[in-house]
Design a protein that fits this description.
This protein is of the alpha+beta class and 654 residues long. Among the domains are: 245-288, no CATH class; 289-630, Porin (Beta Barrel). Helices cover 36% and strands 33% of the residues. The strands form two sheets. Strands 1-2-3-4-5-6-7-9-10-11-12-13-14-17-18-19 form a 16-stranded antiparallel beta barrel. Strands 15-16 form a two-stranded antiparallel sheet.
Length: 654
């Protein structure tokens, strides 16, 4: 028992001995408690120091520092009037500079930036604490975005030697921001040389920083180097998938490089909002996602020459696929059954100047396949064949080129197409006198077209030259020119109306529109001129899209007379040199068409199109009912201009 009492007494005596007896001692105890993280004990000790000497500057600092960790709001309220000016003025210069620096950093920690600035600026140059105060001013400048001024303060802070790691990193950050601003200025001024120099510094300081990668992309864009810009944007997205605008910029870069599939992949993965609102990307998606087309319809045509009535029912099936390496490809099959009228007795036909008896009704039927391939957006190749069951069948095809050309895109190419003006020109016919097959005309054409547009007006034009050939048909040559414009007339939510004008001129060397041997049964005037206004209205409403189009034209036709047998002078002479009469006429032509397409799901659409044409060259009606189904969901199955899936339409797949 006596041993325990002695031990307690010894500890009490020791505690009384360790207790500070003056303000300096309590302040030292507060510093020790603060250093080990015991902020409550530090505050109590600082309060004891203040009780012994309330005007002592360091005790007041120790109390405010400890209070800032326990009650920051109270510390903020106490700091502005904390120090006694008389005691401060009495302190040695070095000690006061050290205190002012410490107070500045305390204010900095509490977010009291104006007061921190005042304390740091009070420290005179040449004193030991001056570099540390300058470092504090540099921190303040960085916080305020004054990076150039911060670098000046950092230079002054280095007078005392190397900066500590955190300040050194802050200085690098400030220097980086200054150079980044220099780069941005040079980029905005389109000064590639200055931007290149600034980027070199950015890359040296922080090569993998998101801002450096974005600067690299901007510099590549300034230099017109799309592949380099793509690499920079991909590197940026690899470290920050959410980098603002980077995914959309990458989409634009890939489109610029004519890589629609890659652009679509990026948009789907990284920029779904861009895909949801970009009609061009949606069109790429509709084209590149594999899909199946089926169309049923037909054409009914009545020409101005006897026996060129044509009925052409068709069933069209096609599958379109794609791959990043191969591009788009389309495989199609078609069944058709063209039919014409009976040739009456007394009419010139085949080898007969006047048939002795009426010829049987002309008809044919058959199936064929075709293939189209677009390895990229600049080139398309088409191969096909008219049905081998036709009286005369032919290979068809095309080689088409597209040049983006900035705001003036243009197209040129070669094509060989069947001429569907009559059954004779499309499928051939049998001469009822000799049993000879003739006809099956193809148009072998070279063309060049282009357009220029702004947001409101589009101008377009084309020129073409073609050779018309067929079995037992005299060769013929055609020149064609066309020009026109489209102007926005009105628009609203989901619809657009345009008005336009068009002039078209055609000229053939010879008139081969008749149905005796050597003729091809196709419209071939020596002069055809059509001039007039046009309109179209496109739009989308709910689950349907629509397109209405039409126009009027004043048409002038001049057709020369023609020999019955232009490719056989002997037969022509033997029959008394008979001739088909020429013709000259003019009048008003009209065209109107309507297409409506319905969204069945996010994978399928169905549509119907009806077109009627009346003019000095023909009367024609065309009907088409179709459906399209994609192999995967697409963002927007509907689009403003539903396509013509059957051959002979104005819209092409490629």
């Amino acid at each position: 028992m006596s041993l325990t009492v002695a031990l307690v007494a010894t500890l009490a005596l020791a505690a009384q001995t360790d207790e500070p007896r003056d303000a300096a001692g309590w302040r030292a105890q507060s510093d020790a408690a603060y250093a080990r993280g015991d902020h409550a004990a530090a505050l109590v000790a600082a309060q004891r120091a203040l009780a012994l000497d309330r005007r002592e500057p360091w005790s007041r600092y120790a109390w405010a520092r400890a209070l800032a960790t326990v009650e920051p709001q109270a510390a903020r309220a106490a700091l502005p009037g904390l120090q006694d000016p008389e005691r401060l003025s009495a302190m040695p210069a070095e000690e006061r500079a050290r205190l002012e620096t410490a107070l500045g950093y305390l204010c900095l920690d509490l977010g009291m930036e104006p007061l921190a600035t005042m304390h740091f600026q009070t420290v005179p140059a040449g004193l030991v604490s001056h570099p540390q105060a300058q470092a504090g001013l540099a921190i303040l400048a960085v916080r305020r975005g004054h990076t150039r001024q911060a670098l000046v303060y950092f230079v002054a802070a280095r007078v005392a030697g190397r900066l500590d790691p955190s300040l050194a990193e802050l200085e690098r950050e400030a220097r980086y921001e200054v150079v980044l601003h220099e780069f941005t200025t040079a980029r905005d001024l389109r000064d590639a040389n200055a931007a290149g120099r600034a980027y070199a510094e950015l890359d040296e300081m922080r090569p993998s920083h998101p801002a450096t990668l974005r600067a690299r992309a901007d510099l590549a864009r300034l230099r017109g180097d799309a592949p380099a810009r793509e690499r920079a944007l991909r590197d940026l997205l690899a470290i920050d998938r959410q980098a603002p605008g980077a995914a959309s910029e990458l989409v634009d870069t890939l489109l610029e490089q004519e890589r629609p599939w890659d652009a679509l992949v990026v948009a789907r993965d990284l920029a779904p909002q861009r895909l949801a609102g970009d009609a061009r990307l949606q069109a790429i998606e509709r084209r590149w996602v594999a899909h199946f087309d089926a169309a049923l319809g037909g054409m009914w045509r009545e020409g101005r020459t006897r026996h060129d009535r044509l009925e052409l029912p068709q069933l069209h099936l096609a599958w379109t696929g794609s791959s990043p390496r191969m591009g788009c490809f389309r495989i199609a099959a078609e069944v058709s059954a063209p039919e014409s009228d009976t040739v009456p007795a007394g009419a010139p036909f085949g080898n007969a100047v006047a048939l002795a008896t009426a010829a049987a009704q002309q008809q044919d039927e058959g199936a064929t396949a075709s293939f189209a391939w677009a390895p990229h957006n600049h080139l398309a190749v088409e191969l096909g064949h008219t049905p081998t069951s036709y009286q005369v069948s032919n290979f068809t095809g095309a080689l088409r080129f597209h040049v983006a050309g900035g705001e003036v895109p243009w197209n040129f190419g070669l094509e060989r197409q069947a001429v569907a003006d009559s059954l004779l020109s499309l499928a051939g016919a049998i001469d009822p006198v000799t049993g000879r097959d003739w006809g099956g005309v193809t148009r072998n054409r070279a063309y060049l077209s282009g357009s220029v547009a702004n947001g409101e007006l589009r101008l377009y034009g084309s020129v073409a030259h073609a050779q018309f050939v067929g079995q037992g048909v005299d060769g013929n040559s055609e020149w064609e020119g066309e020009a026109g414009f489209w102007q926005r007339a009105a628009s609203g939510t989901g619809w657009l109306a345009r008005i336009g004008g068009n002039v078209r001129a055609i000229g053939f060397d010879d008139n081969r529109s008749y149905f005796t041997l050597g003729h091809g049964g196709y419209f071939s005037p020596q002069k055809f001129l059509s001039v007039g206004p046009s309109f179209d209205l496109t739009g989308q409403r709910a689950a349907a899209s629509f397109r209405f189009e039409g126009g009027l034209a004043w048409q002038v036709v001049r057709e020369h007379g023609s020999e019955f047998f232009p490719d056989d002078p002997v037969r022509q002479a033997a029959n008394g040199d008979p001739r088909h009469a020429g013709d000259s006429r003019e009048g008003v032509g009209a065209r109107i068409a309507a297409t409506v397409e319905w969204r069945l799901s996010n994978r399928a659409v169905a549509g119907v199109r009806l077109e009627g044409i009346s003019g000095e060259d023909r009367e024609q009606v065309r009907l088409q009912v179709y459906t399209r189904r994609w192999g995967a969901p697409v963002t927007e199955p509907l689009h403003e201009a539903p396509p013509l899936l059957l051959p002979g339409g104005i819209d092409r797949v490629f």
